[in-house]
Amino acid sequence: MDCKSPKSSPSLNNPGRSPLNKSRLSLYSSLFPYSQSGGSSFARRVLTVPKKKAGKLDDALSNGWLESMKSSSPPKKKILKDPGLDVASDDNDYAYHSWLLSYPSALRSFDKITDFASNKKIAIFLDYDGTLSPIVDDPDCAYLSTDMRSAVRSVAKYFPTAIISGRSRDMVYNLVGLKELYYAGSHVSLETHRAKVLPSPACKEFLPVIDEVFRTLERNTRDIEGAKVENHKFCVSVHYRNVSEKVSLLGYSAERVHNIVDDYPQLRLTHGRKVLEVRPVIDWDKGKAVEFLLNSLGLENSDDVLPIYIGDDRTDEDAFTVLRQGNRGYGILVSSTPKESEALFSLKDPSEVNDFLKSLSSLVRSNRVMASSFYLLSSSPYPSGNFFILSLFQSARTNHIFNFPRSFPLIKQQTFSAISASSLDTGLTTELDAVSSHSEVVPDTVIFDDFERFPPTAATVSSSLLLGICSLPDTAFRGAVDTALADRKCSATDSSDARMSCFFNQALVNVGCDLAKLVPGRVSTEIDARLAYDTHGIISKVHDLLNLYREVEVPPERLLFKIPATWQGIEASRILESEGIRTHMTLVYSFCQAAAAAQAGASVIQIFVGRIRDWARHRSGDPEIEAALKRGEDPGLALVTKAYSYIHKYGHNSKLMAAAIRNKQDVLHVLGVDYIITPLKILQALKESVTPDDKYSFVKRLSPDSANAYNFSEEELVKWDQYSFASAMGPAGVELLAAGLDGYANQAKRVEEFFGKIWPPPNV
To answer: What segment(s) does the record annotate as region Disordered (predicted)?
Structure first.
């Protein structure tokens, strides 16, 4: 494969990404109205659930849910702060701005960081791919830019500098090309102009089996075009970045790898950025690598060192945790999208890492820190394998103890109080009135306890909401979570994982029960995204939650169950709907998802307009999106129009919901759709406008007549099955679905981890 040379390496600001939006903790207004024949009460009680058999998460992961799709996230747009503008900012801008309050920019906090470094020895650990170099399609082409190489070389002039990587040492050296650095690779040896450290005996025993697996994988993936197998001595990686998206969706290559690894119990399969990794089953990660290195350097028990770790991958969290829990130093997360982390500071992308390194060199020249005491190390998650690292730096006794308190990012309460004195109160016609005459307007808002001023009529309970409740202990729903953690049957469960899963189910239902008392409509309960590729697992989970809801006297007709729109999720919806259980399909990014969900009889189908648009702005190669662009249409809005037309033209009963609405024009282009989830900023602008703006057309765009006039191809009118579904999923659908699943699953995992930290509660 042709690659650019190091002198013309990729730019630091990678344009090939689309955002991963964090789930909103939404309470929907006038959504899924429910007619109550009479009053009902919902008893608050301590719930119990039976011990359940764990699902096959690994199978689900390897069959298409690839966290590597995070690489499709683009740089964020500038936040619009002018309230007079009628174009809303990216729906992730506000979340990112709020996120920075908890993870301040390391550049803006540079003086604070270096104040701690005064008269101390600084050890800096850096991730390689995604930190020093952007993530690129071909890992062999992940060169340092000329500017980044200059910054690293400048740092190496003043401080011992090393790069630690999951790649082989030679591969990393060839990419970086600086002789003055230390290089540590996945083969657990370190070779530099100063020292060499050999593998540990515990690691050597895996060499024969890893070599055998490498040969087997190489032989069994030769017919998969674009697949690339690499032997890193102590880690084998299978790159699928250049494999056809349709093949990736089918899980064809992943299934082969999984089946091969199943025959080797001493190995495990993990997922990186568009890479499957085979690693030994040993207790080793980046956090332990940091501890081992600090110990080897004699830096673990002194009071004059400040370790700093900079990385972008979730494998770096182990290192962040070590520095945080041990009160040893700072973690700096490289990310342009909000995500929970044990890091204390953030940098947006490799260009900011470049600026940070240059600033360090400048500090040395200004004598503000001690050049002879800096230790610069670097690590890589490419592949994010086991890190066996060592170096022979000048021995020094160090350890700066400090503690930076940090809480979860604040979740801002928002209500309509800011627009309560709007023109609607005067009886005049507003733009919001005009919109509401065609579609149900659903405020996209996060509310915890201000129901009196803005009473929603329906709600969603999710892992995101549980995280928000746990981070704000004074919320009205914290008691529901505490009650779940006090459940005796869950507490008596032998397995820790099963116990946390039990608590998780309890908490969802307890909070859902409280919400059901507050809203007249339905409560939508999120189903664990880790079950996204397990039809029976989804159905079992829904039945378990439904039984728990019955125990607190919330009837099934008050409930929806929010399921990811994988093929397995759609099949689960078909079965559940046949049982009279209402389903809400989410993460819909392609027509085949919407059509298959409609054929399955899903009650609600949710399409994310803005996320599809973002993908199209920075990526190409999706036939459906390319066709919309050629017609001069926005691809997200075009998908809403197409799905609406299909549902109404062919007599399906599903309701269509347009989400990730970014501006007023988006609202007007989907007028007539069943539900429009609209940000408060847009709603406020609509409600404060006394008469419709002449430059906008408040015309119903979607109607049964427009649906009947829509032309579909024969291929689009098939009875969808798993093969046709997989074949029709374009790159945008594949990547955005995987990204959404990854985000939801991480949130669920974090809830269970949080419960594990606070359980048992004081009164148990």
So the answer is: 1-21
Decide if 345 contacts 330 (C-beta within 8 A). yes
CB-based contact 121:377 (threshold 8 Å) = no
Tokens of 713: 């191809």
Tokens of 759: 């359980």
Same domain, 487 and 358: no
- Catalytic annotation, pick one of 562, 642, 664, 687: 562
pLDDT of residue 86: 34
Which residues lie below 8 Å from residue 544, measured CB to CB, with a gap of 6+? Answer: 49, 52, 505
- 297 and 274 both lie in a single domain: no
Query: Would you state the pLDDT for residue 670?
Result: 95
Mean pLDDT, residues 121-125 taken together: 78
Q: Which residues, 6+ apart, have CB-to-CB distance to 407 below 8 Å? A: 102, 471
How far is the C-alpha of 634 from the C-alpha of 72, rounded, in Å?
19
Q: Determine the Cα–Cα distance for residues 253 and 270; give it in Å rounded to an integer.
A: 14
* Of residues 304 and 331, more confidently modeled: 331
Q: Are 634 and 613 in contact (CB under 8 A)?
A: yes
CB 492 within 8 A of CB 66: no
Confidence of residue 425 (pLDDT cuts 50, 70, 90): very low
Long-range contact pairs involving 480-484 (C-beta distance under 8 Å, separation at least 24):
480/44, 480/507, 480/510, 480/511, 480/513, 480/514, 481/507, 481/510, 481/511, 482/761, 483/44, 483/46, 483/47, 483/510, 484/47, 484/509, 484/510
258 & 290 share domain = no
CA dist 419 to 28, 80, 440, 687, 691, Å? 18, 19, 19, 8, 16
Q: How confident is the model at residue 596 (pLDDT cuts 50, 70, 90)?
A: very high
Domain end call among 345, 362, 379: 379
HEC readout, 501-542 = HHHHHHHHHHHHHHHHHHCCCCEEEECCHHHCCCHHHHHHHH
530-562 pLDDT tens trace: 999 999 999 999 999 999 999 999 999 999 999
Q: How confident is the model at residue 299 (pLDDT cuts 50, 70, 90)?
A: low
- What is the average pLDDT value for the chain, to the nearest integer? 73
Put the strands of the sheet holding 275-280 in their side by side order.
Answer: 228-231, 236-239, 275-280, 267-272
End-to-end CA distance of the chain: 61
How many structural domains are present in the chain?
Answer: 3
Contact 335, 76 (CB under 8 A): no
Strand-pairing partners, residue 191, are 183, 196
Please confirm, yes or no, whether 53 is among the known catalytic residues.
Answer: no
Q: Supply 386's token pair.
A: 């086991």
Residue pair 97/80 in contact by the 8 Å Cβ criterion: no
- The reply to whether 593 and 677 lie within a common domain is yes
Tell me, what CATH number does 478's domain have?
A: 3.20.20.70
Q: What pLDDT, in 10s, does the model give residues 336-394?
A: 888 889 999 999 999 999 999 898 888 776 665 555 443 444 443 333 333 333 332 22
Task: Return the minimum-mean-pLDDT range out of 194-208, 492-506, 641-655, 730-744.
Answer: 194-208
Domain extent for 223 = 207-280
Same domain, 265 and 294: no
What residues contact residue 247 under an 8 Å CB cut-off, 6+ apart? 224, 253
Distance CA 273, CA 287 (A): 20
Within-domain flag for 31? no
- Structure tokens belonging to residue 46: 């301590």
Tell me whether residue 1 is in a domain. Answer: no
Whole-number Å distance between alpha carbons of 563 and 572: 9
**Mind listing the pLDDT tens digit for each residue in 257-268?**
777 877 777 777
In this structure, the chain runs to a length of 764
Task: Tell me the three state secondary structure of residue 548.
Answer: helix
Same structural domain, 268 and 307:
no
* Nearest of 333, 371, 368, 366 to residue 349 by alpha carbon: 333
Residue 29 has pLDDT above 60, yes or no: no
Distance CA 352, CA 13 (A): 10
Rg (CA), the chain: 27
- Name the band, by pLDDT with cuts 50, 70 and 90, for residue 696: low
Please determine, for residue 522, whether its predicted confidence score (pLDDT) is greater than 60: yes
